[in-house]
Amino acid sequence: QVQLQESGPGLVKPSQTLSLTCTVSGDSITSTNYYWSWIRQSPGRGLEWVGAIAYDGSTYYKTSLKSHISISRDTSKNQFSLQLSSVTPEDTAVYYCARDIGGVAGPGREYDYWGQGTQVTVSS
């Protein structure tokens, strides 16, 4: 059974950096054929794929966020992390990590395992 667990601060001030970590158990983040994605959900935008890191460490980002997003990993801890800099209240959302099936079209379309999600609020 694959399990994912998000962790990180629930409150971030505007212009600061949002940092979240996803700890994976039951599978290795270096397993071939999978991506490991971050997705967020807010009342105004619904479900939004943010970015992903592949089994080989390649990264993929939503185009509109490329200038202030970074996804990295720690293979020794089987974790991957999201950093979103210069946040605004529009970045307020529930953030999920998920195992991404990917495929020919790449990440951001189909997921088979999800974390429970963590609320992040951007507010002063």
Descriptive overview:
With 124 residues, the chain is mainly beta. 0% of the residues lie in helices and 52% in strands. It has strands spanning 3-7, 11-12, 18-25, 35-42, 46-54, 59-61, 69-74, 79-84, 93-100, 111-114, 118-122. The strands form 2 sheets. Strands 2, 4, 5, 6, 9, 10 and 11 form a 7-stranded mixed β-sheet that branches.
Secondary-structure content class = mainly beta
**Tally of helical segments:** 0
Q: Tell how many strands the DSSP assignment holds.
A: 11
Average pLDDT level: 95
Main sheet characteristics: 7 strands, mixed
Give the terminus-to-terminus CA distance.
Answer: 39 Å
Global outline: globular
- The amount of helix comes to under 10%
Cα-atom Rg, whole angstroms? 13 Å
Query: Which H/E pattern describes the elements?
Result: EEEEEEEEEEE
- Low-confidence spans: none
- Share in β-strands: over 45%
Topology of this protein?
Elements (H helix, E strand, L loop, with lengths): L2 E5 L3 E2 L5 E8 L9 E8 L3 E9 L4 E3 L7 E6 L4 E6 L8 E8 L10 E4 L3 E5 L2
Parallel strand pairs: 2-11
Antiparallel strand pairs: 1-3, 3-8, 4-5, 4-9, 5-6, 7-8, 9-10, 9-11
List keywords for this structure.
0% helix, mainly beta, 124 residues, single chain, seven-stranded mixed sheet
Provide a concise account of the structure shown.
The chain has no helices and eleven strands.
